[in-house]
Amino acid sequence: MSGWTGPAVAALALAAATAFGLLRARRDGRLRGAGRGGALRLTTADLGAALGERATLVQFSTSFCAVCPGTRRLLADVAATAPGVRFVEIDAEDRLDLVRRADVMRTPTVLVLDRTGRLVRRAAGAPTRADVAAALELATAP
Amino acid sequence: MPDPTPDPIPAPAPAAPTRIDPRGPRFGAAVTTVVLLAVLATGSGVLLAAQAAVFAAGAVGGLRFSPYGWVFRHLVRPRLGPPQELEDERPPRFAQAVGLGFAVIGAAGYLSGTGWLGIAASAAALVAAFLNAAFGYCLGCELYLFAVRTARPRAGRP
Description:
The structure holds 2 protein chains of 2 kinds.
Chain A: H1 5-27, H2 44-47, E1 55-61, H3 68-81, E2 85-91, H4 96-101, E3 109-114, E4 119-124, H5 129-140
Parallel strand pairs in A: 1-2
Antiparallel strand pairs in A: 1-3, 3-4
Chain B: E1 19-20, H1 23-42, H2 45-61, H3 67-80, E2 87-88, H4 90-111, H5 115-135, H6 139-151
Antiparallel strand pairs in B: 1-2
Helix pairs in contact in B: 1-2, 1-3, 1-5, 2-4, 4-5
Organism (chain B): Actinacidiphila epipremni
Protein name (chain B): DUF4395 domain-containing protein
Domain DUF4395 (chain B): 20-149
């Protein structure tokens, strides 16, 4: 192997990581439509907690998730200030059944459910407060 | 929901985890990036083995025992002022364990004359360290749930 293979691979790895990082930063935490899990509907029994009267914010977390605590604080705060909105946090490792049903690949994953438990919006990564507010508006629209 | 199958991935430590300055692991990732670049430039298995020892110290003993963490606490942090918030030590510690795996494989590759293995494993570790340093993105942490999903068989499904 020539002496240039290592440096060339290093340059390639940095370029690929930069492209991935930039793309990820743009898409991370964006709340989008229900996608493949279009018909997903979670019940009080599924969640192990009551649904909110108007909407429910569900967060999947693991212990090995650096941004989960920040997202938890944000969602708990939003739920505390918005009437009829509940926040439910789920330990993904304990609930692999739900993880598979909801097609959760990474943490945090945030699901926004309407009052019947139907999935309205979802985000992989930490969402912004404004995005959560907009998704809640959609979920609680009459 | 208890799972009877043995867990291939170590369970997280019990309650009251150590909380650390999040800038520490980020600084460590920047140093690691530079070291891995040097490894790829020189093809030095010994240097990669040294980096493996650094990963091992952070993964086994906790980030307090990582040499880069020591440098951060004594030389960098005094110039930065206090952190805005602390974070759970477990995610970056898990990432150190993932880095250790790659570094051990890479060092074994270089030192046994299997150059391509050394290069491939170092490049993978470089991607993870660089993503952490430049974007604050913890690849090992992100893949954790994916690994658990894959490792544990589906139960109660037709």
